[in-house]
Amino acid sequence: MAAPIAIHLEFGGGAELLFGSVKEHHVTLPNQSEPWDMKQLLVWIRGNMLKERPELFVQGDTVRPGILVLINDADWELMVGVLPECVLCVKD
Amino acid sequence: MCQVDEEYNGQLEHRVTPRVSKKCVKCKENTAVLIIRAGDAFCRGCFKEYFIHKFRAMLGKNRVIFPGEKVLLAVSGGPASSSMLSQVQEGLSRDAPKKLRFVPGIIYIDEGGASGQSMEERERAVAQLESVFRATNYHYHIVHLEQVLSLPSSVLDAGSSATEKPQTGSSYKAAVDQFIQTKKNQHPDLSVENAQSHLSSLSMHEVENGVTSPITPEHTQALQKLFASVRTLTAKEDLLHTLRQHLILHTARTQGYTKVMMGDSCSRLAIKLLSNISLGRGASLATDTGFSDPRYGDVVIVRPMRDYSSKEIAYYNRMFDIPSVFIPGLDTKAQDKASIQHLTESFVTKLQTDFPSTVSTIYRTSEKLHTACPPQNTNTQPFAKCLLCVCALDTKLEEFSAYQATLISEQLSQRRGPASSASQGQCCSSGGGQHQGCMTGEGGCCSSAKSTVDLKSLLCYSCRLTIKDMVNALPQYILSEAERRKRRSQMREEISEFLLDEEEDEAIPRVNGSL
Q: Cytoplasm among the record's keywords (chain B) (predicted)?
């Protein structure tokens, strides 16, 4: 039901080392029936983009403690609370 | 509550995904962009104000920086020190109300030789940082860690402090006056304002002079050999930290800086506090994590960023485009349990996600630690400082102390004879062989120059543990300083009966009868 979404991902502060030392990525999330949310995005990143050491980036359902996530330059925690449930907004 | 994987399903109230954005708690008008501490949401403008205000308040509350003083900013390229650099720029800029008044310089220590980076990577990082430093127009120094091998041994001398530590507001004024007085004596024709502009004009001309002598591959190899001889990552990190401090201290002394600003953030200091306790540095916790660190005497280390959590710094850097360069260190991508410091870091960070007041609680606890200033008899106890970390020696063997218990259990657990222990702490003869005679002026007290120097009695407890993990020799300057101290204390013992002044804590038998 959701159309493919194009998103712009930026990694910094050392996280880029896990992604082949590339800081900026433009990716397109594929078509899928339910709307994308952060949890699924992380699973997708882990499966498709992470080059090495997945345990240093993702832990269980969410990112490893210490990794800060900004969505459209605003704090992820503002949108969710504790569980990664927010529906992904697209920044073009 | 303390289990790792416990689920709290259904108990906590779910916060409904807000379609309406939250408002800033301060101005209540703009939309919030980030959450600090437990739940305060700030908008961009209020956050910037809050951030800048905290820096100035930290400097203003602990008044140790005198106007016109030369302050060295230790920038590692990471987010906290880059943020500190931008705050200093902000504070010194013309349009700031009540602007800060001191003369900054920047130092960057290139540690790529120790962490195994290639020359191109190091040069790239240095070039990036140089462009950042040039934009600030401050005098900067780029020092390679290899230069630590050629430091003079005088760097380990705790210099005498220039002024007494100001206790209250009124004596701060007195300290400032005294500082200006000594500067006037050095430059009799310059007033404070002229001195400041003089120094800043100097820095403009000498900006090219920032990079020190280029290093050769042999230096890098020697450094790598030194670090390769350390067996555990914990000891490596400790050694790296010590050598870095020595380099910064040396640069500060030779270039005339009296204060050094380090960019340790609150999170970093909380981790440091806990890992220092695990490393055996409990005795010097107050100086290691406090705002000001006076152990070097003439150069005082201050930590103005100690109130900022790493989240605040990261967001500020992102929102206001503060340039920072990520340089991989010794423990990048290491396993969680690779070293004590790394393990503590992952522990605290993990705890912080579930209990957001962890770091601030540890921070507030560390604020309560105070340095007990020993009486200022610098002449009576010249060797009471550790050789490596220059903190007060904590290894006086008292009855029933924890340290004595540690020693006893160590002896009991060694089944073999004492011959094997003559080993690792002692350095190989390469260091000792060059110092055959006494230095002139020591008098005839040189008991035969030993080929190996027993370093243990000169080190604090945790430095001993670090040395225990090393099989090779320490850099030359440390060894020569160790020898000098050993000779001095031997001489002291030999003539102790003839010393007229009686220290209270040494039971020197007085010589009766005629001398």
A: yes
User: At B422, which amino acid appears?
Assistant: A
**H or E element: which one contains B162?**
none
Asked if the model's pLDDT at residue B34 lies above 50, the reply is yes
pLDDT tier, B192 (very low <50, low <70, confident <90, very high otherwise): very low
State the pLDDT at residue B2. Answer: 55
Are A81 and B33 inside 8 Å of each other by CB? Answer: no
Please give the structure tokens belonging to residue B302.
């201050």
Check CB contact under 8 Å for B14 and A81: yes
pLDDT of residue B433: 37
What is the least distance, in Å, from the CA of B347 to any CA of chain A? Answer: 10
CA distance B90 to B99: 9
Give CA–CA dist B163/B290, Å, rounded. 19
Domains in chain A, start-ordered, CATH in brackets?
5-82 (3.10.20.30)
CA atoms within 13 A on the CB side of B247: 24
Cα(B250)–Cα(A57) distance, rounded to whole angstroms?
A: 39
What are the pLDDT digits (tens) for B251-280?
Answer: 999 999 999 999 999 999 999 999 999 998
Whether residues B333 and A13 touch (CB distance < 8 A) is answered with no
CA-based nearest distance A74→chain B, Å? 5
State the CB neighbour count (10 A cutoff) for residue B443: 10
Q: How far apart are the first and last CA of chain B?
A: 73
Give the whole-angstrom CA distance, residue B132 versus residue B145: 20
The β-bridge partners of B31 are B23
For residue B172, pLDDT beyond 60: yes
Residues of chain A contacting residue B41, judged by C-beta atoms under 8 Å apart: 78
CB atoms within 10 A of CB B441: 5
CB contact under 8 A, B12 and A56: no
Name which of B35, B79, B326 is nearest A78 (Cβ-Cβ): B35
Task: Give the gap in angstroms from C-alpha B349 to the nearest C-alpha of chain A.
Answer: 6
CB–CB contact B350 A65 (8 Å): yes
Tens-digit pLDDT profile for residues B458-492: 888 888 888 887 876 788 888 888 888 888 888 88
- Distance separating alpha carbons of residues B452 and B483, to the nearest angstrom: 9
pLDDT in tens, B211-245: 556 778 888 888 888 888 888 899 999 999 999 99
Q: Please indicate if any CB of chain A lies within 8 Å of the CB of B25.
A: no
Closest CA to B166 of B289, B61, B44: B61
Q: Which of A56-60, B305-309, B410-414 has the lowest mean pLDDT?
A: B410-414
Q: Would you call B261 helix, strand, or coil by DSSP?
A: strand
- Across the interface, of A56, A78, A83, the residue whose CB is closest to B34 is A78
Task: Characterize A28-37 residue by residue with b for buried, 16 or more Cβ atoms within 10 angstroms of its Cβ, and e for exposed.
Answer: ebeeeeeebe
Interchain contact B349–A (C-beta under 8 A):
yes
Residues recorded for chain A:
92
Helix axes B266-279, B358-367, angle to 10 degrees: 70
Higher-confidence position of B17 and B410 = B410
Share of chain B above pLDDT 90, in %: 23
Q: Which ipTM value was assigned to this complex?
A: 0.84
Compute the distance between CA of residue B357 and CA of residue B359 in angstroms, rounded to an integer.
Answer: 6
